[in-house]
Amino acid sequence: MLVNVYCFFVACLVFGFRVESRHLQFQLNGYECFFEDVKKGTDCSLEYAPITGADPQIDTYIEDPNGQVFYNEKRKDYDLHKFKANVTGTYKFCFSNVFDFSIGNNLVYFDFVNGVDSYFSDLDGQHKALTQLETSTLSIHENLNLVQRYQNYHRMREANGRMAAESLNDRVLWWSVGQSVIVVSVGVVQVFVLRRFFTVSKQEL
C-alpha cells in the first residue's frame, strides 16, 4: 500500500496535473448563470445540488458557444453531467428556481471541472501493456476520483440535513415559546376570574 501511494505521488510530481475546477456555493433567487472558457475536445463535468430551500429542486442547462443547449434538466435535486467540448469558446451553465411564477430561495452547490489531467488520460487511452507503476498510479487515480465523488455527494446531503434540522429546531423553539406564553396568559386570566368569583364588594354586604 505504501509503495502504491509513493508511486502515485511520484507520478504527480513528474507529470503534474492540468485540471481547472470551479467550486462554489451561492444563493439562488430566480436565475443565475456562470461562464467558463473551454477548449475543443476537453473533458468536462458539472456536479450540482440545491442544499437548502423549501423546495430543494432547480432547473439547469448548459449552452455551448454556438448557442446550442445540449444539457437541460428540470427540477433536479442532484446531478453529475460529464461531456466533451465540441467547440472552443465560452460555455454557459445556468440555474433557475422559478416555477409557475413563483421564485424559490435555495443555497446551491456546484463543481465545474474543466479538463482531466493529461497523463492519466493518456494512460487510460493506451492499448499497450502498462508498467506496474502506471497500473498502480491509474488505479489509485480512479479510486480517488470515486472517493471524491462520494464525499461531495454525502457532504451535500449532510449539509442539507443539518440545515433542515436547524430550521426545524428554530420552528420548534418559537412554537414552544408561543405555547408557554399562551399557558401563562390562560393561568393569569383564570386567577383573575376566580378572584372575582370570591370577592364580595361593600355594597353587597
Structural notes for this entry:
The chain has helices at residues 2-15, 118-125, 132-197; strands at 20-28, 31-38, 43-50, 58-63, 69-76, 79-84, 89-96, 98-99, 102-103, 106-114. It is α+β, with helices and mostly antiparallel strands. Helix content is 43%, strand content 32%. The strands form three sheets. The protein has a four-stranded antiparallel β-sheet, with no helix packed on it. A four-stranded antiparallel β-sheet has the order 2-7-4-5, with no helix packed on it. A two-stranded antiparallel ribbon has the order 8-9. It contains three helices and ten strands; from the N terminus they run H-E-E-E-E-E-E-E-E-E-E-H-H. A hairpin with a 2-residue loop joins strand 8 (98-99) and strand 9 (102-103). Residues 1-19 have low confidence and may be disordered.
What is the fold's blueprint, element by element?
Blueprint: H1 2-15, E1 20-28, E2 31-38, E3 43-50, E4 58-63, E5 69-76, E6 79-84, E7 89-96, E8 98-99, E9 102-103, E10 106-114, H2 118-125, H3 132-197
Antiparallel strand pairs: 1-10, 2-7, 3-6, 3-10, 4-5, 4-7, 8-9
